[in-house]
Specification:
The protein is of the alpha/beta class. It has twelve helices and eight strands. Strands 1-2-3-4-5-6-7-8 form an eight-stranded parallel beta sheet, sandwiched between helices. The model has no long low-confidence stretch (mean pLDDT 93). The structure holds zinc ion.
Length: 265
C-alpha cells in the first residue's frame, strides 16, 4: 500500500508540465528526446549558434514540444563573413512560421578580449536585433562579462521583447529588466547572486533553462531551477512550475507557432 502511494506520487510528480527556455538540442549526443518530454519538460526553446547549428535546429524541431530559435552566437560572430551572415538571415526569414525567437545572440567579452573583437561582436549583435525588429520576434541574449554593453546596445536599438539567458546582472540591471518587462531564465545551478536576482524580480519575469548540453547535461534539470524559484518565492513546486511554464509559452508565443494548429484545421 505504502509503495502504491509512493508510486502514485512519483507518477503525479513526473506529470508536472515544465518548460526549458534555452537549450541547444542540436548539440546533444543523444537525439532521442522522448525521455525528457515524457518526464514533463514538454516545451523547449532550442537555440542555433552558427550556420550548421541553425540548419540542424530546424531539422530537430517539431513545433509541438521543440521550438526553434535561430541566431549567430558571440563566438561565431567573431568569424562569420558577410555571405554566411546573409544566408542565416534569409534562413530565419524563410522559416518565420516556425521560429519563436532570434537566438542565441549577444556579447561575450571572455571570447572577445580586445577592442576589435568586441566591435565585431557588437556589429553582428546589432544586425541580429534589426532582424528581430523586422520579424517582430523576441531575442534570446547571451551576456557573459558584458551585461552593461548588452543593455546599452538593446537601449540604443529600442529592442522590445528581450530574454536574458543565464542572467548574471546586479541590482541596477534588475531595474532595467523590471522597467522594460524583460524575461530572465534561471539555470539549475544555485549562486548567491542568482538567488538575490530571483528574490528581487517578480515571478512574472522569470523562466528556467538547462542550456543543455553545455551548463546541464539534460533538460530534465530545469526541475531543480523551478525548485530554487519555488523555495525563494515561498510557493509550492507545482504552482511555480505552472507559472513559469505559462510565462515561457506566452513570451515565445509557442501556441501561434505550434504545428498542432495546422493539424486541427
Ligand atoms: Zn546557450
Amino acid at each position: 500500500m505504502q509503495k502504491e502511494i509512493l508510486r502514485h506520487r512519483e507518477l503525479k510528480k513526473q506529470k508536472t508540465e515544465m518548460a526549458d527556455a534555452h537549450c541547444h538540442l542540436d548539440l546533444m549526443e543523444n537525439k532521442d528526446f522522448t525521455e525528457f518530454i515524457s518526464y514533463g519538460v514538454r516545451t523547449l526553446i532550442t537555440n542555433g549558434i552558427d550556420t550548421k547549428s541553425n540548419l540542424e535546429t530546424l531539422n530537430i524541431s517539431d513545433n509541438r514540444n521543440i521550438f526553434p530559435a535561430l541566431g549567430i552566437d558571440p563566438q561565431f560572430a567573431l568569424i562569420v563573413g558577410g555571405e554566411e551572415l546573409d544566408f542565416n538571415i534569409k534562413l530565419a526569414k524563410d522559416n518565420l512560421s516556425r521560429i519563436v525567437a532570434i537566438g542565441e545572440i549577444g556579447l561575450d567579452f571572455i571570447a572577445a578580449a580586445d577592442d576589435a573583437k568586441k566591435q565585431k561582436q557588437i556589429r553582428i549583435f546589432e544586425r541580429m536585433l534589426d532582424l528581430a525588429a523586422e520579424t517582430h520576434l523576441p531575442v534570446s541574449v547571451h551576456s557573459r562579462n558584458s551585461i552593461k554593453e548588452v543593455i546599452s546596445v538593446l537601449e540604443a536599438k529600442k529592442t522590445k521583447k528581450v530574454h536574458f539567458h543565464f542572467f548574471e546582472g546586479d541590482l541596477e540591471d534588475i531595474y532595467y529588466i523590471k522597467k522594460n518587462n524583460c524575461m530572465i531564465s534561471v539555470p539549475p545551478q544555485p549562486s548567491a547572486r542568482r538567488m538575490q536576482v530571483i528574490k528581487e524580480l517578480p515571478i512574472s519575469n522569470i523562466m528556467v533553462e538547462s542550456d543543455a548540453p553545455a551548463a546541464s547535461k539534460n533538460p530534465i534539470y530545469v526541475e531543480n531551477a523551478i525548485k530554487m524559484v519555488s523555495e525563494i518565492k515561498g510557493i509550492d513546486f507545482e504552482r511555480a512550475a505552472q507559472i513559469i511554464t505559462a510565462n515561457t509559452k506566452i513570451f515565445f508565443n509557442t501556441k501561434n507557432k505550434s504545428n498542432l494548429n495546422s493539424l486541427r484545421k
